[in-house]
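Pasting two entries for a bug report.
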Amino acid sequence: MSGSTREALVASARELAPSIATRVEKTASLRRVPEESFEEFRASGLLRTFVPTAFGGHALPLASVIETSREVSAVCGSSGWCLAICTLHNLMVNGFPQAAQEEVFGSLRDPVVCGVFMPGGQAVREPGGYRLSGAWNFASACDHADYAILAAFMVPEAGAGPKGVASFLVRREDFSIEDNWFVAGLEGTGSKRVIVEDLIVPENWVMPLVEANVAGGPPTVPNTRGLPTRSVATLGLAGVPIGIAKGALQTFRDRLAGKLRVASIRSASEQVAAQLRLAESAAEVDAVELMVLRDCEEMERKAAAGQEASLEERGRYRRDAAFAFQTCARAVARLLPAAGAQAIFQEGSLQRAMRDTQVLATHMVADWDMGRESYARALLDLPVDDPAF
């Protein structure tokens, strides 16, 4: 499927959804996405969305990951999250030196790359590379990973203070996994802790990210088509809450259509309050989907013209990503009081959607206070200190 179109990949994700849906309970009980689901991701070419065409990938626009993860998340939020994360991590691999790209994309046609971009360790400079050690939480899909991208503080020599932050590419055999993933929602993402001890990482497997004490850092990473890196990492995840919310809306609609309110003997046509909840939540989800797709298209258009995103635009991308996460959580929560007592059971899809979106609302990307502050400060031409900006 080399060179597949955006429309074809979205159609593939939609076709996979019924199969993914049959494994929702298995995904939750395993606390990770089953191998069968990842095999389907590989076979469909979804993991190659951002892989360069030189390595057999599709090199598609950023909006593609929002749309593919949306389709999968509508039936299983954990599976959709892992699909989005791993797809975006392959885009991040494009920012590493050529030797690292050839290692990842040349040896494996459909590599799975996990990653953590908050520094979890330190890397001490040595001849030819760095000695990396640390522990990184929230490494989604690490059980399936062939590689990990791990951020760490760069230390020029033993005993010195950090001089910046970089991402380091690590093979699966060079990191261990600690199972600490016991959570209230998105339990199937397997976002466990990964550990690296005294690993020598060659210099051409390192991607510098931020110089020490430079707020905001560089807006782009090489070989990612000039897109603002942090905006990619935030907006690119928005398809997951949107998809979960769309799935919840469909479930609520189906239940309402056949639900008789026993106490008052009201049919669906008479349950106006429930209809209004459905309409308001649907409007919110549609609105944020349009916002984030607009942002992605604007980013791609400017990058293609060789233009950098302005501070105001990056602030808006940060704002819109957080707003999408929070709005979808609110839209799902609005449905529950009118969904009936069946919605309280843990295995129910509405209950799972509420738990998953509430957990997503705690993610750094979803920090609405930080997101709106960063946007306002960018508008006012004030310094912005936000790791997701």
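Entry 2 (this is the one that rendered wrong in the viewer):
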Amino acid sequence: MNHFYSDIIQFKGNHYDFGFMQGEILKESPILTNRKKQYAKSRKRHFNINKEEAIQLFSKFIPSMLDELHGLADALNWSIEDSLTEFGGYYVDYEQSGCSILTGSKYLIRNYDSHPGYYEGRYTIYNPTDAGYAVIGPSMQITGRTDGMNEKGLVMGYNFINRIDSGNGFVCNMIGRIILETCANVGEAISLLKEIPHRTSFSYVLLDPSGETFVVEASPRKVVARKSNISTNHFELLTEENRYHMDDSVRRFNELKKQKSLDPDIYEAYRILNDKEKDVFSNKYAVSAGTIHTSAYIPSERKALFAIGGNRMPVIFDFDRYLEGQKINIKQIRGVLDFDTPFVNMDGSMS
């Protein structure tokens, strides 16, 4: 068992300044150095980005993101092309992952399952002053969000489905960021998901204070929405997009369905996903399917819960109090995983 941590990044201000601040932090962080080593080994990131196409899409869906990317570029002394390639979340391959989501009328609980060596270790709380809603949640590829909640109480999490037959478009974490910063409710988020171009196939799970959950099945070819309280790593409607091997996804789905029938409250639901004995939490880190964090959100109360590893009491964030001006004093969230490769924000990640 080894100790891991996520750094708390909180900021109030415009997107350019937010980007610049993050760039200043990255200059002192191992993240970029460790990722450069990863890319050199895998060669997956050797691709060409269409700068004009990416800028056009950002201008349409979230113009302020261009300011954040410029801020990152200026702080790091990079070109905007490099910033778009590294942080833009457009036309980028995404690491395979697991993930399970369970919701009730008042909560969304989500296990993020992947390989710790690719996990960023950043939990962000950003309140923009120029455009967009304030958002709380873990980041991925710096600008993207793996899950989160905005000031309106809209909550989003996603599940990996398939990377075969990928297309030109945004990856899941940037789509998550766009949803949370630009959509006030589930209806707006569904409309956005039907319009935005998707790089690969993912399910996006959406909940707002109205209490009704929708799972949006999205591929580069088609997007459909359905009501459900459970989502793992296979589509129920767009079955032609599924992978051949779905046994573990179906097993976790059935386990969550069985537990959901007991009508758990938020703390019971959190334990269903976070307790190692409940058959949903995963230790399969070596194959990019181990549970790294468990997030929980209560839209009506604007509360976010977060834990690294299993059998952990979550850290609880009162997002409303933050929005009212109360600074969050926590600097890091710590946890334990049964794996020996650290997150990329930790020294020695790729040694």
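Dev reply: Rendering is fixed now. As a check, the viewer should reflect this: The first strand starts at residue 2 and ends at 13.
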